[in-house]
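pasting for ref
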Amino acid sequence: MNKPRSWSWLLLFTTTGTLLCCAIPITLVSLGFGAAVASMASSAPWLIALSQYKVWMFSVSGLLIALAAWSVYRPGRSCPTDPELAAACQLADKWNKRFIALSAGMWLIGFFAAYALPVLQQ
């Protein structure tokens, strides 16, 4: 029996990365908290490197979310007939759907803050 794939941690890692690199700093600066962003950048300099590749960050994380959504919602997917395995499969599906929704929401917030918010403020 194959072990079911869990996209949850990979999704949360990539979407959290987009929030950390791009969305949170832009939002804080827009709200007038530039000193907080400077403090974040000095205590975590790797955020600067991530923000230089924000197009790649958003592209890869968006692709991973789309692949995970396809994996969970694809037609013809079914759980085993064994009651114990079926219960575990249904629970995993329920949590995977929650993580996909959470990740997609985080991605949309990050995308709005990184790309739409700066345009709206001009």
